[in-house]
Write a structure and sequence with these properties.
The chain has 324 residues and is of the alpha/beta class. The protein has a domain of 178 residues: Rossmann fold (3-Layer(aba) Sandwich), CATH 3.40.50.720. Helices cover 50% and strands 14% of the residues. The strands form 3 sheets. It has a 7-stranded parallel β-sheet with strand order 3-2-1-4-5-6-10, with helices on both faces. Helix 1 packs across helix 7, helix 2 runs parallel beside helix 3 and helix 8 runs parallel beside helix 11. The radius of gyration is 20 Å and the shape is globular. The protein starts with a strand and ends with a helix. The structure holds NADP nicotinamide-adenine-dinucleotide phosphate.
C-alpha cells in the first residue's frame, strides 16, 4: 500500500511532536493532515507544503470524515485524550469507516492484554481509571468491528516525560508520584513515534491486528527511580511514599495540577501500578525490539541526559548571576 496521506491526531502532543518529523522523513511523498483545536500549536509547520493544518474539533465526526475524503487520507494515527475519549474514539472509527478512503489505522492504547477474557477480567478487577478502561473498549471495537481498514495497536507503558509533569522533581528534589515497590516499565515518546512509523510503513501486512507493547523490560520501583534521579542530579531526590498519607497527598497534588476529575482519576491509576506493577513479558519485549529494529531507549540514559542539561542550565544561571 502506498502511503499517500496520513491523518495524525494530537500532533502537538508528547508523541505527536516526535512523530511528525519522523513521518516527513520516512515517507517523503506523503501528505500529512493535522487536525487540531488550535492551529497556533502547530505554527512551526505552517510553511511546509506537505502539511495541512486543519483547525476544528476531532470530537466532530462529520468534520473528521470530511478531512479524510477531501485529503484522500489512507492512513490514520489515532491518539485520543480527554474525558470524552470514548465518544471521540468511537465516532472517529466510524468516520474513518464511512470515508471509504482509510486503509490502515494505528491506535495509541496502553501495554497489556486488554482483549482476552482473562485480560479484561484482570483489568476491570483492578482498574477504575476511565482513561485506562476506555482503551480496552476501543481495542475490542477494533477487533470485532468488522472495519474495512486494517489496524495496529501501540501499547506504551509509562512515558519518560511524565516525570516532568509535576514541578517538584527538578525544583525541589521531590518525585511526586508514589510509584510503589512493584515497579513500572518506562518508554520514550521517540520510541512510540518510531513504532508508529513502522506500523504505518507495514500498512497492516504483518502487524495488522497486532498490539505492540512498548517500553523497558525492567520495571522501575520507587526506590530505583529516586535513586536514578539522585545519582544523575548529584543531590538527594525523595519520592512520595505509596502509603495512606502518600495517596492522600498525591491526590491533592494531582487535583492542583489537573483539576478534580483528572486528579482523582490519575491517583486511581497510579495506585494500581504501585500495587501491581506495569510492564510486559519477555516475548512482548522481544517483539517490540523486532518491530523497532533496535532496543528501546533506556530510562536511565534519559534521566542522566536531562539531569545534565539541568545542571548545565544551573551552572550558566549561576555564572550569569556572578557576572551580572
Ligand atoms: N503518559 C503516559 O504515561 C501514557 C502511557 C500509556 C498510554 N498513554 C496514552 O497516550 C495518550 C496521550 O498521548 P500524548 O501524551 O502524546 O498526548 P498529549 O500530549 O496529551 O496530547 C495532547 C493533545 O491532544 C489533543 N487533545 C487533548 N484533549 C483532547 C480531547 N479532549 N479531544 C481531542 N483531542 C484532545 C490536543 O491537541 P489539539 O488541541 O491540537 O487537537 C492536545 O494538544 C493518551 O491516550 C494516554 O492515555 C499515556
Amino acid at each position: 500500500m502506498a502511503i499517500e496521506s496520513i491523518l495524525v491526531t494530537a500532533a502537538s502532543g508528547n508523541i505527536g511532536k516526535r512523530l511528525i518529523p519522523l513521518l516527513l522523513s520516512s515517507f517523503p511523498s506523503a501528505k500529512l493532515v493535522l487536525p487540531t483545536s488550535s492551529a497556533s500549536r502547530l505554527a512551526s509547520y505552517t510553511s511546509n507544503p506537505r502539511i495541512s493544518i486543519e483547525e476544528g474539533s476531532i470530537t466532530d465526526p462529520q468534520w473528521l470524515e470530511h478531512l479524510c475524503t477531501s485529503h484522500a487520507v489512507n492512513t490514520v494515527f489515532l491518539n485520543v485524550t480527554g474525558t470524552d475519549e470514548l465518544f471521540t474514539a468511537m465516532n472517529a472509527l466510524d468516520s474513518f469507516q464511512r470515508s471509504g478512503t482509510v486503509k490502515h489505522l494505528v491506535y495509541v492504547s496502553g501495554a497489556g492484554d486488554w482483549t482476552s477474557p482473562a485480560g479484561i477480567q484482570a483489568l476491570f478487577e483492578r482498574h477504575t481509571a476511565a482513561h485506562v478502561l476506555v482503551k480496552t473498549v476501543v481495542e475490542q471495537k477494533l477487533q470485532y468491528g468488522g472495519f474495512h481498514f486494517t489496524w495496529t495497536v501501540l501499547g506504551p507503558t509509562l512515558f519518560f516525560d511524565n516525570d516532568l509533569r509535576f514541578p517538584n522533581l527538578l525544583k525541589n528534589g521531590y518525585y511526586d508520584i508514589p510509584l510503589g515497590s512493584a515497579g513500572v516499565s518506562r518508554v520514550s515518546c521517540a520510541d512510540i513515534a518510531l513504532a508508529a512509523v513502522k506500523a504505518i510503513a507495514d500498512g497492516g501486512k504483518t502487524l495488522g491486528g497486532k498490539k505492540i507493547a512498548l517500553g523497558s523490560l525492567q520495571q522501575y520501583t520507587d526506590v530505583e527511580t529516586a535513586g536514578l534521579w539522585s545519582e544523575a542530579l548529584g543531590r538527594e531526590v525523595r519520592i512520595r511514599a505509596a502509603n495512606v498519607e502518600g495517596w492522600e497527598s498525591f491526590e491533592v497534588a494531582s487535583v492542583a495540577l489537573a483539576g478534580k476529575v483528572w486528579g482523582r482519576e490519575i491517583a486511581l491509576m497510579y495506585r494500581v501500578f504501585a500495587e501491581d506493577g506495569w510492564g510486559m513479558s519477555a516475548e512482548e519485549y522481544a517483539f517490540q525490539v523486532q518491530v523497532l529494529g533496535k532496543e528501546p531507549e533506556r530510562y536511565r540514559d534519559w534521566v542522566v541526559e536531562l539531569a545534565k542539561g539541568e545542571k548545565d542550565g544551573m551552572e550558566s544561571a549561576r555564572s550569569c548571576e556572578a557576572s551580572g
